[in-house]
């Protein structure tokens, strides 16, 4: 199945902070340069993100995922990724970042 992102072709920055009902993140626009997801402290126990699946984000330079204790899988292909910030993701079991060269981890 092919997914298109009509109207999102110019999206460069996506901030999904506080999205407590988000369980899986996939099929993101390839134009993204920065992606941030933070379940703030009050929502720490209820944050439901469990996976970021097979995201092909060739332009992504910065990825921040914080306070997501249920996150088990992070799988992305991001050849431009330079900064990865994972904090409060103690449930993470599978980290698969193909093509990434980190300057800060």
Label this structure with key terms:
single chain; 105 residues; mainly beta; 4-stranded parallel beta sheet; 34% strand; disordered N terminus
Short characterization:
With 105 residues, the chain is mostly beta strands. It has one domain. It is built from no helices and eight strands.
Total beta-strand segments: 8
Adjacency order of strands in the biggest sheet? 1-3-5-7
Low-confidence stretches: 1-5
Helix amount = under 10%
Number of domains: 1
What is the topology?
Blueprint: E1 13-15, E2 24-25, E3 34-38, E4 51-56, E5 62-66, E6 73-77, E7 83-87, E8 94-98
Parallel strand pairs: 1-3, 2-4, 3-5, 4-6, 5-7, 6-8
